[in-house]
Structures are given as structure tokens and as C-alpha cells.
Amino acid sequence: MTRFLCNRLIMMMVTMLCASFLVFAVCEFSPGSVARKSLGPFATQQQVDLLFKKLRATDPLPVRYSRWLGVLLGLIPDPLQAPDSGLNFNDPRGAQYFGNFGYSTLNKLPVNDVIWDRLKHTAVLAGLAFALIVPLSIIFGILSGLKEGGALDRFLSVICVTFTSIPEFASGVFLVTLFVILWPLLPGTSQLDPGSGWSIPSQLVLPVAVLVIYDFGYVARMIRVSMIGVMERPFIRTAVLKGMDTRQVIFGHALRNAMIAPFTVLLLQINFLVSGVVVTELVFAYPGFGRLLLDASLFGDIATLEAATLVTVAIAVTTQLVGDLGYMLLDPRIRVK
């Protein structure tokens, strides 16, 4: 197990290193001057020329990437925070520390002062949605899988397919029309502002509902298919013939085996709920990670884009590691030395 974890951690670091290089290269070679893209469209030419000199943008790409990685790992100070730069980039943590993602020109703040707050907001939204998606998916999947082709299976399948087919913006507009315009029970925006006259929990209801409606049907269908396959296995028929209680058969034998395949699907929803909820956050003006990523892309905030990409990759590789460990718990036949 120790060797397995060490190998996976090394693979995670290599994956993040490759991803960071690709993102850095794309940002560097995208149309326009690197300095101009970093400072934004409203910077003066003098500031652009100064930043171009500080970045030493004429150096080869591997050299510039090594310098950027050194700043990120805290091995060298950030040259943009030098007093003689004249850029007024000031990080209260200092110019040299581990995890220095640079300065966000969009928000006029260090990236670390922006990205972690937004990620925390999205984590709250994703956590609530995930806490509802998992039990709903399991319940719908079990009920459908136990009576394949029956009236209940067809009814639940129609619900799952219908909800999954509705885009997030469409369900968001529909819910706003119902619960904000026709029946003013909930706020139409979710800016997490306690002074807006609405409580924070009430501001989370609609965006969480949109994510649950869009996502749980897909996961439920995956569990349904897996449940059907497991219920046809010989050990299930043997347990039934022995007179074992139906509830014990389902929750003691069938469900654990049926969750092996959908386990990966469930973990993939974490990646979606963190970095793929741009539409939902945009519809409800939610100050989350996905909206930050969209704003940074539109503005050309390179430092924020690079930091957000690394965070997204880190979440993805972490869920993969958790998935491998989960497989070992769900299936005792899998052993790692």
C-alpha cells in the first residue's frame, strides 16, 4: 500500500507539472504581448514595456517557465514585486513564499487573496449539491434496478432522462420564474450578501436545486445499470433462495457490488461541481470559482487562469486517488502490495 501511494503521489506531481507547463505555454503563445495580457487593456505603454523587461520575455520558453515555477514554489522572489518595478504589485505575504501564484490584474489583488475565497464559496455550493445528489441517485438507481422494465422503472427513468436533458440555464430561468417572480419566496441572485434582506441559506436554495436537477439523473442511470447487472449474479440468487431478508440482500450484498462501477462517476461529479458550474454561478451571480475562471478568461488575467487550472488539476488527480482507494474498500479482491 505504501508503495502504491508513493507511486500515485509521484504521478500526481508529474501530471500537475505537465499541466502547468501546457497552461503556461498556451498563455505565453496566445495572440498579443505577454505583458499587455498580464496588465490588461487599460495599462499604459510605459507599464507594458516595464513589465516586458521584468518578465524577460525574450528568454526561451523553458527558461521563463522555470522562473515562473521557481516563484510558485518559493525558490526565488517574484520580480514583479520589486520596489523598482513601478507596478505597485504588493503581496502582504512577501515576494517569496510557497504557493505564490502572482498578482491578479483583474481584481487588483494577489491571486491567493482571490482564488481561495472563491473556491470556498464553490465548495459550499458543491458540498450541498453533492450531499443531495448521492442519496437521490442511489435511491432512484436502486428502485429502478430492482424492477427493470416495470412501471416504476419507466417512470423514474423518464424523470432522470428529462432532468438530465434540461440545460442548467433553462432550469435556472424556470426556477427563478416560479419562485422569484410568480411566487416571491426566494431571492433571484445568490451573491452571499447578508445585507440583501435574504438569509445565506435562502440564497443557496436555487443554485443548489439547479445543480441537483441537472446532475442526479445521470448518476442514477449509471447506478441503475450496475444494479441490474448485480441482481442477476449467482450470489444474489443464492441469497434469495436461502430466504435472506430482501433489505439485507439489497444493502448487504447487492448495493456494495453495484457501487463499484458508479463510484468513478460519483467522483467525477466533484470535478464538475467545482470547475464546471460556470453557467449556474453566472445565472445567479454567485461569487464562485467557476465565475472567477470565466471572468479571468474574458479579461485575460493570466496569473488567475494559471492558478485556477492548477487547482482544477489538483482536484482531478486527488479524486482519482480517492477512487482507487475506494475501489479497494468496495471490492476486497483488489489488493495492492
What strand line-up does the widest sheet have?
1-2
Tally of DSSP helical segments: 14
Number of strands: 2
Give the averaged pLDDT, no decimals: 83
Main sheet, how many strands, which sense, barrel? 2 strands, antiparallel
The third-level CATH topology of the largest domain is: MetI-like fold
CA-CA gap between termini = 5 Å
CATH superfamily of the largest domain: MetI-like
Helix and strand composition category: mainly alpha
- The amount of helix comes to over 70%
Provide the number of structural domains: 2
**Rg on CA atoms, Å:** 25 Å
Bulk shape: globular
What order do the helices and strands follow? HHHHEEHHHHHHHHHH
Which range does the strand content fall in? under 5%
**What are the low-pLDDT stretches, counting only 5+ consecutive residues below 50?**
none
Question: What is the CATH level 1 assignment of the largest domain?
Answer: Mainly Alpha
Which architecture of the largest domain does the CATH hierarchy give at level 2?
A: Orthogonal Bundle
